[in-house]
Predict the 3D structure of the following.
Amino acid sequence: MRLMSILMLSAALFSIGIYGVLVRRNAVLVLMSIELMLNAVNINLIGFGTWLRDTAFVNAQAFVLFVIAIAAAEVGIGIAIVLAIYRNKASIAVDEVDSMKW
Amino acid sequence: MSNQQVVQVIIFGIAAALIIFGGIRVVTAQNIVRAALYLVLTLAATAGLFVLLLAEFIAAVQILIYVGAVVVILLFGIMLTRAPIGLTPDLDNESARIWGLVAGLVFLGVVTFVLWRHFASVPALELSAPDSGANEALGRSLLVDWVAPFEAVSMVLLSALIGALAMARKD
Amino acid sequence: MVGALASSVSVASSALLGAAEAAAEHGEHAAAVLNGPNSTLKLGWLVVALPFVGWLLTLFFGKRSPMRGAIYGVTALGAGLLISIAMFFQVAGGAAPYHQKFYTFDIGGYEVSTGFSFDSFTVMMFAVVTLISFLVHIYSLAYMKDEVRFTFFYATLSLFTGSMLLMVASDNLLQMFVGWELVGVCSYLLIGHYWEEKPNSSAAIKAFITTRIGDVGMMFGIFVLFFAAGTFDIGGINGLAASGGIKHGILLAGATLLFIGVIGKSAQFPLHVWLPDAMAGPTPVSALIHAATMVVAGIYLVARNFDVFRTAFALGPGGPANVVMIIGTITMLIAALLAMVQDDIKKVLAYSTVSQLGYMVAALGVGAWTAAVFHLFTHAMFKALLFLGSGSVIHAVHSNNMSDMGGLRKEMPVTFWTFLIGSAALAGVPGLAGFFSKDEILHFAFHNHYYAVFGVGLLTAALTALYMTRCVSLTFFGEFRGHGHPHESPRLMTVPLVVLAVLSVTVGSLNFWGMKGFGVWIAYAGEQHVAEFDVVAMLAGTAAGAIGILLGLWIYYWKKAPQGLLDRVAPFRWAHTLLMNKYYLDDLYIKGIVRPVQYSLSKVAYWINQKIIDGVVNGVGVMTRKALAEATYWLDQTVVDGFVNDVANEAGEAGGALRRIQTGKAQQYVAVAVVATAVLVIAVVWAVR
Amino acid sequence: MTIWIEVAVKTLALLLMIPLAALALGYSELKIMAHMQSRVGPMEAGKFHGWAQLIADGLKFIQKEDVIPEAADRSVFALAPVLSLISAFLVFAVVPFGSGQRFWFFNLDIGLFYALAVSAISVLGVLMAGWSSANKYSLMGGLRAAAQLMAYELPLVLAAVAVVIQAGTMSLVGIVEAQANFSILGIPVPYVVPQFAGFVIFVIASVAELSRTPFDMPMAESELITGPLTEYTGFRFLFFFMAEYAGMFALSAIAATIYLGGYWLPGVPDNIAPAVGPVALVAKTGLIAFFLIWIRSTYPRLREDQLQKFAWKVLIPISLVNILVTSIAVVFVSDVQG
């Protein structure tokens, strides 16, 4: 197995995430797409860690743990925001949430 | 290629196929709960990939945090808001589809180009069974080398917890 | 005699605690504890641990325990007091400091150790803290008897004491900071004890936030010193500072930042505003905060790291005017003036504490280390006495205001006499504790040509005598102006008063000119000693006190002052109004800091967001999306229609177009970000190709 | 080739274990609860004390018509029970039944953590079942199950963390060995003694994870019919049934392993230890399972908010203090021993 295939997998997943973030209207689906992108980053980190071995391997894992922790925090906050918006507007379509202008 | 390497490539292929398939379905599925379930598929397959790449602790964390908690919270949020069975129209911004596709492909192209130039010549990865001290080394790394980020992340989680609580309250 | 007492106390305490000591020292025989040169000092950790154990026990089992949980705190502090006294006598007998290392962490390549250091200064603080806290524990049994959350009160009281002891015993700044913050948390809990009423919880929050402002400074001070010295060890940092191992600029920064923490914690100008409000807590807590635990922490910090401050600010005889001295001097004067006009008896005492803390800080600022520490020591005695006495009065008349008191000397003889002794000690009546310590500070300042400090100190001494005379006159003389029938407080409250009154009379002699006992026991190596005795300073101090007392008697006891002096004479009226409004400092903080942060800052942020960030975003938007179309349109319009559209119209058009770019839709912004990233990556790849 | 045979045998054993555990525990529950309530319980099937009752029930379930509601999301509906069962199956894979290679499916370095991770998947199955049934009660039950997760997951993991700190390993075999080498004042005791608070928290959190009384809000019969399982019939229901009892057995086995010493018994000579090990583990597991059944027939159901309050205000603080005390004690002891 080559490093390149892992990196390509990661890049592809990240691009899928970008597509999802840009195209999806539902806020929860946007959050999921962001999870895909974070997951791609994790694959990338672990891939490099396995390639470089030794301390890089351990440090990559530590980084991934941080990413996962941040992702968990992000989902928590994200869902709280979605629920708050849903309560106020009875809709969670991101393109209808545009009162933050002017 | 040795036998073992063949097995590795096959496992990687299966995992990668599941990851990509799940990912594509996450962003294309026309039912929001199904999209979340495809996310589970992607995340679980990623955990499998981590096991293959010798990071078994990360794989377990991936299962526990992502599949066990994050997706459940996502589903919880979905079902609290609106989650009809069957196809839901207008999950996508139709006019943005083409631009999303372009953006994704451009990004993929750029990254592929860069990666190809720098990492195409890297030889096959050597995947030997991890020595038993791997998790101890990880723990040491987290709490010695990365103790400051570790504490910072703890603070982030704490404030996220409080923030989520404050936002989701009714009053 | 002292030796006999010391050995008997240490025998008692060691017998009590020999088992624990043996456990700690892995089989060291209990006999060694009794005979070693610094044997009792080895028990010091127990003094710190006991209140924490008491706290946990009270917290978990309090409500189902005898005395509703107070038993644990009282026992812990009683035992701690015994050990502390034994340690005190051992130190007085010349025992060497004892250093106990616990555990060393290796965090990110830095070694952080924890441990206790018991030298004479620490032991003195131990004695003060455990003594006052023990008496407060006893006193509160009666005072808090019918109050809400009795058990929780006792739990927090124990934790409060334990935190202070932890801070005092620490051998490193980090551990000290932990204790320092725990003290802050406990003071918050105790000040807000009656949180059902809004002003009380506001006072607690004010105290917490005000001291926190200082703590931020202190934290950064600790970081600065840590990175300069490479260690948290107090001895190490001070040694380096004294020997010039730390660059002066860095040292100055570190010391200044630490001093900000002191200003917050010890209620120095301009962060003194929280202390009077902190009177919202139960009175025994005020006694503890003012005498032993909270506010003296700042003094202790400066005194403990005196080498850092001395080197940074060039403190000492012949040194220049410095921030420590200036802050202390300002504080002592303004607080004494404020104490003049208060009606709330506890606020009089609170401002008096601020003033006396100013004395200590100013003393440290002129380099009078021993005098400052000695004043801390004596002040703890009589200020605890005064607060507990005022608590006794409040308990009797159910009001904090002196306008509801008067004539109480007949009904409450014990409270009256002890309060009188405390006031006399604070006012500097010769022979009592306050006289010696205050005189020593004045003497030091005078002798080393700090005439400003000396002058303000004299003025403050006179004012102190004046307001204490006022306080005593209004409370205990004249006619009773309140409601109901006041009566003497129960034994549990008066006995601590008597104990403290006796100490207020006697502890001054510890540093009697002839003996110099205190200065020898609790010596600081870097201090330059001055001549033993100076008759000018002594006479001036005595005269200032006498003038203050006579003036007070003239106005408030004999009532010879013209009526309505304050209302009719303009300068007095102005001064009175200024003082009644606390120099408008609270208003300044609310209007000058809190409001701007709440309103103006948000406006500024809004403006920046609107004008700058949106402008940039819009610019990018035009570049990426609309540029071509707009350009074509513009060209078309210009060529075909010439000057059909005037310049203003153009500007409006462009603005409208730009406005449409800011859709508020997050996804379009993400799209811009993605495109920009891709462009950047391509540019970088092309550049490094 | 032998490795494949070994894997096949172990997989078969594992697959057999799930219905066996479900049968044994289900029957025990029927009988124990019957006796606790002073009645006899099923007595007819199989003549002797109705031992074959559940087998008969199983056969009945398999024969029943497989009904899928018209409005249901068919594939998700079909997948949900499988996912629940897989979760229990995966937990079983790391439980060591004795000392030695042949007694476990695999001995992961992170065994305990793995077990907790895969046991968390089961809630996903419940949530899927609840949503896909197209039934208000089912959805409500699924939501309750998801909300419940936020209450029990943290105490469960935090309680286990204290054990990991004390044992110095996450491997279940390692934890058992650490308990074999552990003693207080010379008396060999399992971790339930020093970790008693953790044990209580772990068991309480397990009850919540298994959605058993008093934390059976997702299935609350009197409010939600049977919650997510309302629309399930026939063999799909059987799957859920098996998953429930297998999950109970698996979590009890994990608890028995990390707190009660697992397959290890003090004073058992080495030559008969392999024979005693599985019996000891099953006995200890049965003890905890019995306790769970006992709780079920004793306590009334709580409300969801009461569980949340209890978890966040009681269980989590205590488990954090437990971790603190454990780590201080571990550091202290290792310092003393040099």
